[in-house]
């Protein structure tokens, strides 16, 4: 029986509360146009007037009555408490880009990160102990309270001023007092609109000069016009949440500018950080709604949605599910990594610290919850930057990977950079020496090189640390790829390589009993056998018909040589006595069929024979055979050394094509790295087939680290091949237990580069240092040192002596063939005894069975080629 489960097609509307013609509302419309695929968000927007509680209450109740599943909007200090009360009582989630507040209401999702801890970190970095804190109550007093609490602990002298109650006279008096005390440290904590007016007053008073240092407690440093401050060379520091250098963000910003203004006559407006937060808010709501649909949670409120002013209030039953779904969202947005804690506040975020330089705003550091404030200021030759290479310590991120970075044996007794050794450790030291900065090596926390998560779009590994400002340089085996080049900068390659195949070294093949036949193909051996038989037969035939191969042999000598005895028959004695003069000589031919075979075998073995052809035709046959055997034996000897003194390894895999066309041997790559990305993006048929297998293999063929991949190769008994960079493959092949090997050529060509954050001023000095090290030959020297000079497996030549087991087959052959001789002799003796017994019985021949033709006429004897012996092809020596 079949059943069909349908996901509810009802799409609840999305609420919106924005001031009329506000920047946030326009970005909300723009964000909805980008998220109309799945799910389709249906907006229900009410325009409100900030500061009017009645207007906000009416709008909120209207939204609730329409059955919205969540509301996105803004608030101010006069309406925030009312909204918090409604959200908590009715279980309606409110997603807001407004200033963060301290609340226990879990239904408020605050998109804007808290700034107070980052501000305190910057104050401590500059070692301020006396300063003026200008604030506006529009954005609440949370940051001010944190600063005052810290000031009480650190004995800071803080003068707090509310700019909302200040007149021009009081504003001027503040600066006059600072001039008298020769102090110029000022913090301004306001929203963007009020901040612009305050900075304008500062310029009018002429206080935008070098003797003043301003810290703008705002997350939109690049949203502020600081042209006049740059002219006056005033020191200005601030915070930036949106990284406009990111290619994805810049593309969305351009789309926003095209969306914002269709009229070319009207100047386009940039995307402010509050608008970026609004865009991320829509993305958060869309992602949460998708998760609810996948979980098949029905969040619709059909019919009467309820009354927000009911007493007692009737909370929405699905509000908890929506609140949980919103807080569990993990995405990468315009404002960086977006994640919320159990209170609905942003966590695990990074804020850039900016300074106004003569060339414009520049990033000089960052702040996050784990590392707190980290300065990344770089020195530009010829600039007035006070934070040069020599004034700070740079963070160099790397990864534990042999032989690039390894812990020393006594690393527990060492501190800092001295704990590490390896190719990249020495390379980082050389680069720092050429550029002229101090550095600290830091091992990447997640142990990965760097890849972008396809769902969250967040970078991990060393690339992530550079992108999110946690490191200044990456000196590691980091492959230069297109996707990485979009978010970070690379130097020229310091090492060239390609993807290669690592397999377990196969067992060496042992020679067999007939391995001496291996130098030549079996077809050639068959041809040699046929040639041997053919030459022997030709030699036999030409010897039979050539008179020069026949020669006279004294009968008695022949008889004595053959062991003949006088006949015991009286009749035969008389007959023999009468014909003896006629039989004084017998014509013999030494090249019978067996002697011809023996002659050919002796020539082939280059041992010679006790007989040789006398006729010209026979010598031509012998000469041709000698020349043939000379060529054959020379070729055989040349190949024999390679075949019998080298133990050959039979590899089941020789190339990527071999891997792709079989399924017995599994193969995989590093789980997060350029090798995996290469196969995922490749359009070559072989690599596409390999990627299809790898991503669907069960169990997974991907490994978390290179060491895990190598151990899997070693323990798989030849059933797993690991795809990795050729340099690492060659290094591991030289390490004990020497049981892996590289097979085939490289699948691609690429290089390792030193990486820096996008737009970092370290890029050019580092790049020049790498080029200089390459020209000096230091890079090749380092590779030889860590790959081959410290190798543990040798060059593979081994001992030049031949191993005994290589010749076992030869001794086996000798032992097996030697018994053939006595066996043959035994057979011959038995046959001879049988013949003698038979001839003694009928008296028809001599002891050796020789045929004696005494009665042939002399005329026949004059032609040796026509003798009886020749006619029947037999002779005394021919047998």
UniProtKB/TrEMBL annotation:
UniProt key word Transcription regulation: no
User: Which InterPro entries is this protein grouped with?
Assistant: ANF_lig-bd_rcpt, Glu/Gly-bd, Ionotropic_Glu_rcpt, Iontro_rcpt_C, Peripla_BP_I
Catalyses which reaction(s): Ca(2+)(in) = Ca(2+)(out)
- Transmembrane segments annotated in the record for this chain: 520-542, 624-646
Q: Per the record, where are the segments of Low complexity compositional bias?
A: 565-585
Q: Which UniProt keywords apply?
A: Cell membrane, Disulfide bond, Glycoprotein, Ion channel, Ion transport, Ligand-gated ion channel, Lipoprotein, Membrane, Palmitate, Phosphoprotein, Postsynaptic cell membrane, Receptor, Signal, Synapse, Transmembrane, Transmembrane helix, Transport
Localized where?
A: Postsynaptic cell membrane
The Gene Ontology biological process annotation of the record reads: cell surface receptor signaling pathway
Note the topology in the membrane. Answer: Multi-pass membrane protein
Q: Which GO terms describe its molecular function?
A: transmitter-gated monoatomic ion channel activity
What is the predominant subcellular site recorded for this chain? membrane
UniProt keyword Aminoacyl-tRNA synthetase, yes or no: no
Instruction: Please tell me one Gene Ontology term that the record gives under cellular component.
Output: postsynaptic membrane
User: Looking at the record, which segments are called Disordered?
Assistant: 559-585
Protein name as annotated: Glutamate receptor, ionotropic, AMPA 1a
Lineage, please? Eukaryota, Metazoa, Chordata, Craniata, Vertebrata
